[in-house]
Design goal:
The protein is α/β, with parallel strands linked by helices. The protein contains 7 helices and 15 strands.
Length: 272
Amino acid sequence: MQGIGPGSIIRRTQDGRHECVTDEVAIEEPLEIRIAGAAIATTMRTPGHDEELAAGFLFSEAIVRKLADLRTIAPGAVLASLGNLINVELAPGVKFESAAAQRFGTISSSCGLCGKTSIEFIRQQFPAIDSAARAQIAEAILLELPGRLRAAQGNFARTGGIHAAGIFDLSGNPLVVREDIGRHNAVDKAIGRAFLDGLLPLNHHVLVVSGRSSFEIVQKALAAGIPIVAAVSAPSSLAVNFARECGQTLIGFLRPPTFNLYSHIERIMFES
């Protein structure tokens, strides 16, 4: 299975015995993203859906705004056999300052506020969610989303070390679910798929992530126009403040039958 590597380990059992078994672990490898042959970022990711990852990253960083801005996005010739290089060609007329890439550098699989020179830059690039165009989800459907996300995960059950990000419609139907060792990479892959399919903005959808919600997760959702972000674990204070300012509904600790609601409660249809 892609993104999974086996290995022999020694396991101590509950009764104190030691046994040699084969364990499966999540693969973590670098992916270098280039524009016109010039490296702009290296992210530590689980191999698979690399074109989606690159597309989602470029979109959430405001390097591309629409599908027509991309001319090609494909594995580079130099490292194609290793699958660790993606080269992007922008469409004629799309401007990109290579000096701006200095804010990216190497992005770890666990980073939160990755490579941003300032939060103000993000606010300038993406408008707040319009509260007038209200998207609402029933509380009962919201509570079903973690289970639906888990059901769509293939690698987590095998390794226990993979995060997932899923985009669902307001009826709880999955649009796309992706996995990666990094939460932000899983989100980029999911948003990248929607971007490549011409489905943005996703203003009647919910982003569900399997871990905590950092500022970067909420920011990527804002870039895609997603009004509701739900996580099975805790949000950061910066994520909460950003969601409140940008008109997003942020939900944490979504562990049925409970959850915490941190911002813009008007999008949740509570049971009477």
